[in-house]
Amino acid sequence: MRQETVTYNLYKFSELSDKAKERARDKWRENMDYPWHDDYRASVEAFCSFFNVKLLDWSVGAFAYYEYKTNATNENFRGLKLKNIDRENMPTGFCADNDLWYSFCDEFKRTGDAKHAFDYALDSAFKSWRADIEYQYSDEAIDDAMTHNDYDFLESGKIY
Fold it and tell me: Which of 8, 65, 130, 131 is the most buried (most CB within 10 A)?
């Protein structure tokens, strides 16, 4: 039986050539799955539920338009008073709660129109959701992830 010893030189991300860094990023993106879709959706659904509104459909992704559909009408907001809304309401504990409730309360206070404020808050949350997806696919975020997770790489940029 023949035995061989193979020696690999390992590098940290910061030690790779620019070309190897790009290959590492591309491979990362190929295998990446955005991890917070469920959390964003839960925040949006909890927000909608507060007003007895249902999120009927949605679509959001990186570098694309987002879309959503609810069954909200002016009836859902009839008689609603800003003083009865807790701006600090964080039903899921996820960061999207901030976007929704702060945007809603601030816009409701500014315009006095609860339905408009509701739509404005949903837009704000979906914009944040899309922006976070885009950031997660950015060179900066990927570089940070590979550096902070202390991965080792082959000279080609392949994670070892």
Answer: 130
| Cβ neighbours of 46 (radius 10 Å) | 18
Instruction: List the pLDDT tens digit at each of the 160 positions of the chain.
Output: 899 999 999 999 999 999 999 999 999 999 999 999 999 999 999 999 999 999 999 999 988 999 999 999 999 999 999 999 999 999 999 999 999 999 999 999 999 999 999 999 999 999 999 999 999 999 999 999 999 999 999 999 999 9
Q: 153 — phi, psi (to 5°)?
A: -130, 150
pTM for this predicted structure: 0.86
DSSP 57-77: EEE--TTS--EEEE---GGGG
Cα separation, 78 vs 71, whole angstroms = 15
The SS3 of residue 8 is coil
Number of H helices, E strands in the chain: 5, 2
Residues contacting 89, CB < 8 A, separation 6+: 50, 97, 101
Half-sphere exposure of 11 (CA within 13 A, CB side): 15
Q: Residue 22 is encoded by which pair of tokens?
A: 């790009």
